[in-house]
Amino acid sequence: MKASAASRNALRAGIILLVFALVATAVLAFTYQSTEPTIARGQQAAKLALLSQVLPATLYDNDLLTSRKSLLPDDLLGTRLDSSMWLAQRNGKFSAVVLEAIAPDGYSGNIALLIGIDANGNVTGVRVTAHRETPGLGDYIERAKSAWVDQFSGKSLSNPAAKHWKVVKDGGTFDARAGATITPRAVVRAVKGALEYFAKHRAEFSAPPAKEPSA
Amino acid sequence: MISLSEFRSLFHNGLVKQNAGLVQLLGLCPLLAISNNVVNALSLGLATMLVMASSSGAVSSVRHFIPHEIRIPVFVLVIAALVTVIDLAMNAFVHPLYLVLGIFIPLITTNCIVLARVDAFSSKNHPLHSVIDALAMGLGLTLVLVVLGGIREIIGQGTLFSGIDLVFGASAKSLVLHVLPNYHGFLLAILPPGAFIALGLLIAANNRYNARSTQRARAAIPVAA
């Protein structure tokens, strides 16, 4: 019978597709299982390497990765979702903090930043972790592309004075390349915002670590 | 297993006659997105070649078990699974390289040249031929990518090989060539429109070259009236 031959063919095709899907799933599951620990280790190492770029090793002796805490969204940080911070301690005393911040007004959307600030409110380092600025034009904010972000190191809310926390073109002290001012302007504003956030919450950072994490 | 002339015709096919970028015009999405400098272009090209070779080999070895009606879903399944495996393996074992190439790997799945070659060639041919065909096609695409990347990088930034230190470590930084010193850049070349314009010019040049060689061939062999 013709109909049954057709349906037998369809069934056969379906079973073959199922077998391929099962084999593919098995291969993927196996690969995921066997690579997952290595990938997790790599990501931890990469995170730590990134943190140590904004925080000199002399400033802390605690395990930074486990010091991570969640922060609620805050306008000064430019965050709309919870962000992370890492508390650095030296000899059991608060020595610095690393904050995640967002510059929401880049040339093409958000610029994600990692900003280290020491106990006295001085910037210890800034790194751009994600952005979509124009390649070859606005991407010099990446440390891999140029040393531009290094000029923030050692700066604080009083150095330079608040009205000079701008790019040179706007009458401030921060350098920016001709043709791409929107990008550095956004980063400068975000770093300033993070410093203001730090000033506002300094007491909470330097308080001795609570035994139980508060909500 | 494979004769020299077959080998040569496969490569001629992949590099010239049916070049993925200039003749078949397949896989243009990643081609246009990534060709803003030579290093990116070369990296994406090599990664695509790897995916093409492995998926062609895989599909070709099981080609007798795949019913014609469901071949496309099976091919997509095989390609997607292989891309994911390569993505995971690179992330785990060559992490520095993954940081540079990682963004391109998922892009390869969007590249229809992979599926096109698997459907047009690997599903009908011996695995060895299929892998060589995929390598030749991938090489053809890589060449176009690199030329396009070179043109866009020189015109856009006045350099060649910028970013090579991201692939080979900081010591490779000295390999960056400043072709045009004190060049202020020409943004259009780096932005997507520059990719379309440069690719259009490349295709035009290729067509002109092909038209000429056919003309010459016709002139050389007198056609009986």
Describe the model.
The complex is a heterodimer of chains A (215) and B (225). Chain A is an alpha+beta fold and 215 residues long. Chain A folds into 2 domains: 1-54; 58-206, no CATH class. In chain A, 36% of the residues lie in helices and 20% in strands. Chain A has helices at 2-54, 182-206, and strands spanning 68-71, 83-90, 93-106, 109-118, 123-130. The model of chain A is unreliable at 210-215 (pLDDT under 50). Chain B is mainly α and 225 residues long. Chain B has helices spanning 4-17, 28-34, 38-61, 71-93, 95-101, 104-109, 112-120, 127-157, 164-168, 187-190, 192-220, and strands at residues 159-160, 177-178. Chain B starts with a helix and ends in a 5-residue tail after the last helix. The chains are: A alpha+beta (215), B mainly alpha (225). Chain A binds chain B through residues 9, 12-13, 16-17, 20-21, 24, 27-28, 31-32, 35, 38-39, 42, 46, 134-137, 144, 179, and chain B through 36-37, 65-67, 69-70, 73-74, 77-78, 80-81, 84-85, 88-89, 91-93, 95, 99, 156-157, 165-166, 184-185, 187, 190-191.
